[in-house]
Structure formats: C-alpha cells, structure tokens
Protein: Carbohydrate ABC transporter permease
Organism: Chrysosporum bergii ANA360D
Amino acid sequence: MSKNNWNLKFSNFFRLGVLLLGALIVLLPLLVVFFTSFAPPGATLEAGPTSNWSLANYRNAWERGKFLLAFANSTLVAIAVTAFQMVTSALAGYALARLKFRGKQALLLVVLATLVIPFQLLVIPIFLVLKWGHLINTYGALILPTGVNGFGIFLLRQYFQTIPVELEEAASIDGANRLQILWRVMLPLARPALVTLFLFTFIAEWNDLFKPLVFTTRPELRTVQLALAEFQEQFTNNWPLMMAAVTIATVPVMVLFLIGQGKFIRGIATTGIKN
C-alpha cells in the first residue's frame, strides 16, 4: 500500500471518528431521556439504569398531561402556519426571483432585515393588533402572526433562481400565464426547497411555547409545549414521568425530520447557488 493511500485511509477514518464522536455527544442526552422514560414509576436518576422497563410512565403522562387535545391543537396550528408560509413564500419568492419592478432590491433587503428581528421584540404591537381584531384566545392568534416568514421567501427566491429561465419561456410560448408557470413548472421543480420550508416551519411551530403562552389563556387552546411546561411544573420530582412526557412531545417532529431529511439537505445546499 502506497503512502498516499495510507494517508487517505487514515484521513477518512479520522473524519469518521470525529463525526461519530459528535453524533454520540448530540445523541447522548436524547438516549438518557429515552431510557429514563422506561424506568419504574417514581425511580430517581441516582438509581442508575434498570432492567425493569415499563410503559406505565407513557400511559400516565398521556392521561395526566391531556396530550390528546394538545396534539390536536399543535397539529392544527403547525399545519395552518406551514400552509400559509408555503403559499406566501412561493408567491413572494417567485416575484423577487423573476419579476422586474421598481424597488425590488430594496424590498429584498427589507425581507432579509426581518430575519434579524426577534419575534419577542414585536410581541406588544402584535398583541395590540390581535386585541383590536378580537383574535386573542383564538386559533387566529396562534396562526396569523407567523403566517409570513422572511426565511421562507428568501429560501424559495434562491431556489427559483437555480431553475433555468428557458423552462418558463417554453411554458409561456404554450400559453401559460405567470400563476400557471409557478404552479405547473416552478413548484414541482422546487420540491426540495418546499420540503425544507415545510420541515423548518412545522418543527418551529410544534416547538413554539411563546405564542400560546402570551396570546391564549383558554385551556382548550393548549398546545403540546404549553401542556409539557404545565406538566413539568406538576411533576418536578418524578423524572421517569417527565422524561416520558418529553419523549411524547419530541417523537413526532423527529419522525417527520427523518422522513424528509434527504430533500431537506438538498434544499439547504442549493439555496446559495445564485445571488
């Protein structure tokens, strides 16, 4: 074996080892949470691993935390916000990528500027607008404030610019208008970016605690994260029960990410190809 081949193999093994170590560091807390959730009810972390695995914690956490209603609310809000963002991001992203109009670059800068403004900084004006519209303590208060997102607009704008203009010109010659070109040509080709936006938005809304905490007080509007926060306050010392609740709240988004991770990576990798 030549020296170059040996160095290449050693470099590959070293990189693999570093990646495995990084994955272990990231996954270790999740594994601790997962295995603790199967411990006998009332067990402590100091007791260490146990061979007496039990699903009782999951049944108790599901019933005591009233997660059925919380799951329904979080799913409804996450899907609604995601749908709004995909529609608005597709329309605005296509306009910024292909249409020519005065103030286009300035508008793009405004969209990018919204990415650095924390949502918490806008909570007071948003609250006043929602109160004026009689939307406090409604699903509208959980959906409308994040129905448009600068990241989604920029993501699709960048992806649309990677698609050859000749495809649009061919569709235009066949008699398609702008909306038909967007729907029948651009969006099917932008599926990786759409999947990326879907995952980002759905996971962010599923994990959001701030909006339901500030804009709602009705128990029937509790989301998963709000139910989890209230659950943790009640069962602070029951670690297996708490870890079961955390696992229940986390599994859906992990499964969703694993399903769409291929297109997610491709969508992220292609967003910066063109300026």
